Amino acid sequence: MAPPTKKRKLSIASGSFKNKTTKSSLADFINNVQKKREVTADSILDFNFHKKRVRIFSQVQLVPDYCEGIVYWMSRDCRVQDNWAFLFAQKLALKNQVPLHVCYCLVEKYLDASLRQFHYLIKGLQKVAAECKKLNILFHLLEGSGDNVLPQWIIDHKIGAVVCDFNPLRIPTSWVENAKNKFSQDVPFIQVDAHNIVPCWVAADKQVHTIYSMRCKINSKLEEYLTDFPPVIKHPYTSNFVPEPIDWDRAIETREADKTVGPIEWANPGYDEAMKTLKSFLEKRLKIYADKRNDPTEDALSNLSPWFHFGQISAQRVALCVQEYKLQYTESVNAFLEVAIVRRELTDNFCFYCENYDNLKGADNWAQKTLDKHRNDKRSYIYTLDQLSKAQTHDDLWNSAQLQLVNEGKMHGSIRMYWGKKILEWTLSPDDALKYAIYLNDHYSIDGRDPNGYAGCMRSICGIHDTNFVERAVFGQVRYMNYNGCKKKFNIDTFVERYGGKKHKYISAK
User: Which pLDDT score is estimated for 19?
Assistant: First the structure.
């Protein structure tokens, strides 16, 4: 493959675009981004694709002679444009002059996901399918995990190569590993990291334990990888078969998920909705991000986490857009890119290289030892998972945070650490605390079941990516947080009034 492109390089340190202060319509905003793709290259064939974004799993690399199509096995990155995996699949299809297919393999149940998350996912996929149709690319929704349903589908339709997404989590990784052994031996099987700006396996070859170390690793490579995208174009080769009809509403209704946790109202799925939120962030909230981002009573965040999680917008595209404001809002741009790139990609590194990313064995040795030492310390309060789920504690701030999670499917980042640490303080053991925190996050948060979520719970309870502090009861040397500390950072009464958390009388369990 050719070396990486040198065209339109950008990095955190070198952002040089001047912000156009005139406000445009959403359609103009989306069209301007599309024009940037078209300026970058006419198609992926005219773009020097960075070969290090790719991992080839199969022994063979050449598409077989019988090939009648290429398939992109979509899973983590559910979008058409600004998607390196989709682009690589189209590159293979164009080179071999065959049709391009997209398959999403929908499982009946996924961990503790509720109807809320399945609804967001499937409604987003419906929009992906419509966009694919406009581009003469067939979208297929298959029932079951990819390792079970794709092997025969590939044989039946004479597919010549499979391109899949990268996901560091245990279950998606197992699907890919199993598929390696089930796919035909003469079909190339390729994985592309379309989620991270610097591919996870390129950023580091082992687990990184501090934010500082990850920052150094990312920044040393960012200029090479933070480039613009070429467009996914209308595909010139048409398939000789059509996809099975998709009943999108039935796809949602038939998931095995808690249907009492319904869809969120503040964020609608799909690329256009993500761009709408990005546009409002750039115009209204980015300017106060540096000073107000840690205050949960202020509207200063990007609010893009749902679309990031489901891959409906590219973090790389967002970084490129935010960077255009570097000269105008330098501190805010730097602060946002630190979170959106360095800290977000650190969580992928953690889950990719740490097998026990969701249990105490994944904590650093010092944290395991200190938590075990204080395992049997007396707790002033002990709450059940049911009480925590219903926000029935003595702490109105914690209850308000939990109600925000239940009702909105999100929790402000500055509250999440407090929320997690109180679960450690109020449960029988650190094992229970971690289990409860992960369940609540996975069940209610629209972006649950994500490396960010697992790393966040592990940091709150097990101190990953953190340092040790003065020893105290229950926490040992893991960082402690309390109510009075939050008072110094923001107006607790305002937050509590907004979400309605009440102080419940504590009744000790017998």
Answer: 46
Residue for token pair 């925190």: 437
Burial (CB count <10 Å: 0-12, 13-18, 19+), residue 243? middle
The rounded distance, in Å, linking the Cα atoms of 282 and 81 is 20
pLDDT tens-digit map of 408-425? 999 998 899 999 999 999
3-state secondary structure 298-361: CCCCCCCHHHHHCCCCCHHHHHHHHHCCCCCCHHHHHHHHHHHHHHHHHHHHHHHHCCCCCCHH
Is residue 88 a contact partner of residue 41, using CB atoms and an 8 Å limit?
no
Q: Which amino acid is at 200?
A: C
Residues 103, 459: Cα–Cα separation, whole Å: 35
What local confidence, expressed as pLDDT, does residue 24 receive?
A: 79
Tokens of 257: 């998920």
The widest CA-to-CA distance across the chain, in whole angstroms, is 72
Q: Regarding the domain delimited by 360-499, which CATH topology (the fold level of the hierarchy) does it fall under? A: DNA Cyclobutane Dipyrimidine Photolyase, subunit A; domain 3 (1.10.579)
Q: pLDDT at residue 402 above 60?
A: yes
End-to-end alpha carbon distance in the chain: 67
Domains 11-235+252-353 and 360-499 alike in fold: no
> Fold for domain 11-235+252-353?
Rossmann fold (3.40.50)
Taking 3-state DSSP, the helix, strand and coil percentages for the chain, each rounded to the nearest 5, stand at: 50, 5, 45
Phi/psi for 73 (5° steps) reads -85, 90
SS3 225: helix
Q: What is the mean pLDDT of residues 67-96?
A: 98
**Whole-angstrom distance, CA of residue 302 vs CA of residue 360:** 32
Q: Which of 19-28, 76-85, 263-272, 459-468 has the lowest mean pLDDT?
A: 19-28
How confident is the model over 477-488, as pLDDT tens digits? 999 999 999 999
pLDDT of residue 508: 80
Radius of gyration, CA atoms only, the chain: 23
Mean pLDDT of 339-368: 98
Domain locations in the chain? 11-235+252-353, 360-499
Pairing of strands 54-56, 69-74: unpaired
Phi, psi (degrees; rounded to nearest 5) at 479: -50, 135
C-alpha–C-alpha distance, residues 258 and 249, integer Å: 16
pTM (two decimals): 0.94
**Percent of the chain clearing pLDDT 90 (strictly above):** 94
Bridge partners for 161 per DSSP: 70
Q: Which residues of 144-183 are buried (b: 16+ CB within 10 A; e: fewer)?
A: ebbbbbbbebbeebebbbbbbbbbbbeebeebbeebeeeb
Measure CA 178 to chain center.
Answer: 23
Tokens of 46: 């005219």
Element (H, E) at 55: strand 54-56
Q: Which backbone phi and psi does 100 adopt, to 5 degrees?
A: -115, 135
